[in-house]
Description:
Strand content: 15-25%
Strand order of the largest sheet: 1-3-2
CATH topology: Alpha-Beta Plaits
Number of domains: 1
Shape: globular
CATH architecture: 2-Layer Sandwich
CATH class: Alpha Beta
Largest sheet: 3 strands, antiparallel
Radius of gyration: 14 Å
Amino acid sequence: MSESRLTVDIDDDRAGWEMDAVRAYYGLRRVATSVEVRISSSGSGIHLVGWFDEPLDADEATRLRHTLGDDGKRIELDGMRDRVGHATNVLWTRKSASDGVDTDFTDIHDALAHIGMTA
C-alpha cells in the first residue's frame, strides 16, 4: 500500500480543460507510484488520485498540485482547512447515493472518451 496520496481536480469550466487534464495525468504519472482516474460527480470533470510510496509534506503537495493545474480555489481552501486541523486533499466522486458516476477508467483518455459520449 502506498504511503500518501495527492488529488488533482480538473474542472470543465475553462477553455482547454481536456488538455489540462491530459497534462496533469502524465505529470502525475511521472512522480507517483500509481494514478487513479475518476470523473467528477457532475460527470464532466476529471479527478486524479496519485499514490506515493513516500510521505509528501504539505508544502511539497501544494507545489505539486499547483504545477499539475489543480483547482486553485480548492488549494486555497485546503490551506485554510489545514490551519484549523480539518481534512484536506479530498475529492468527492460521489456526493450522494443518486450520483451515477463511473469510476473504472484505465487512463485519462478512457475517462475523457466517456465524458465525450455522455455529455
